[in-house]
Amino acid sequence: MTKMWNEIMEQPQVLGKCMGKNKNAIDGITEEIKRNGISSVVIAARGTSDHAAVYAKYIIEILTGVPVSLAAPSVFTMYGKEVCLKNSLVIGISQSGKAADAIEVITSANRQGALTVSVTNFPDSPMAVEAKYHLFCDCGIEKSVAATKTFTAQMYLIAQLVAKWSGNEELLDELSRVPENMTETFKEEKSVMERVERYRFMKECFVLARGVNYSIAMESALKIQETTYVRAKAYATSDFYHGPFAMIEKDMPVLVFAPDGPSLKDVEEMMKRLVEREAELIVISNKPELGRMGSSFFRIPKSDNDLITPFYNVAVAQMFACRLALTKGLNPDSPRGLNKVTITR
Q1: How far apart are CA 211 and CA 20, in angstroms?
Q2: DSSP readout, 20-76?
Q3: Pick from 2, 6, 5, 12: nearest CA to 177
Q4: The domain 181-327 belongs to what CATH superfamily?
Q5: pTM reported for the whole predicted model
Q6: Annotated domain spans of the chain
Q7: What φ, ψ does residue 305 adopt, rounded to 5°?
Q8: What would the pLDDT profile of 4-33 be if each residue is shown by its tens digit?
């Protein structure tokens, strides 16, 4: 089996370790947030880590009401400007901890006395050293170019931090069950293997979700792009109505994340429109009745919490991308033209 597949399957163990490993750091960060009266959050990241940042934006704004912006690192590096970051929590997210432009955002924040936090898989990395606090993914070496376990670890650490920050004991309890439930998600392995053959010749697709799971639509599209070379494009269903829907034609593959919860009504309405246009729906949901609307259905564990279902949705997407690459005769561990660590400035 491929390195990518093995790393997908390691995620329950990785998330289980995350919980206890970072408790002291999370306690320290939350104490400083409350003491300093943080009024805004800025997050710097690239690639897969940027999708974890989008997840972070949603969960922070939903649970704390504090506005979150995604940094434009080029402002600091390419244009040589500095943005006011005083009284902000500034978070850098990077699997390797070597993202030079994201590190520059942290450096600028430190000069201004902001509270800085890094989320990386290497505690001795430049970003981890530069930030005041470090949240350690502790995934072990991720050998596949396509990030899987580091992505879910990043989301998990951010969710733990925000749950503690907001005092949300219910979320903390549900997060504690994510590793076990993710193991349940992997029972779809056989289903993925059987159904992915249908998409052997797929060259393009759309990936749709709404709300918090929009971050997962983007991450899923990226995984499909880099491992299978399919031209996958992610949209929030709310945006898909505004123009992109015109591209839908008969048999166009569309992956739809439709978990129970606040986003379900809107996503279901989009699914109905897609069925009318005879699109090829690939449904990922914990609502079996929605599966009947699609040509393929993958089940995730029961939850109506939009802050939790992203973990299960992305696990299915990772399996789908990996198996599709193999079905196409490709090596998902070493996509053409890509390296594990990409440094931009």
Answers
A1: 29
A2: HHTHHHHHHHHHHHHHHT--EEEEEE-HHHHHHHHHHHHHHHHHH---EEE--HHHH
A3: 12
A4: Glucose-6-phosphate isomerase like protein; domain 1 (3.40.50.10490)
A5: 0.94
A6: 3-176, 181-327
A7: -100, 110
A8: 999 999 999 999 988 788 999 999 999 999
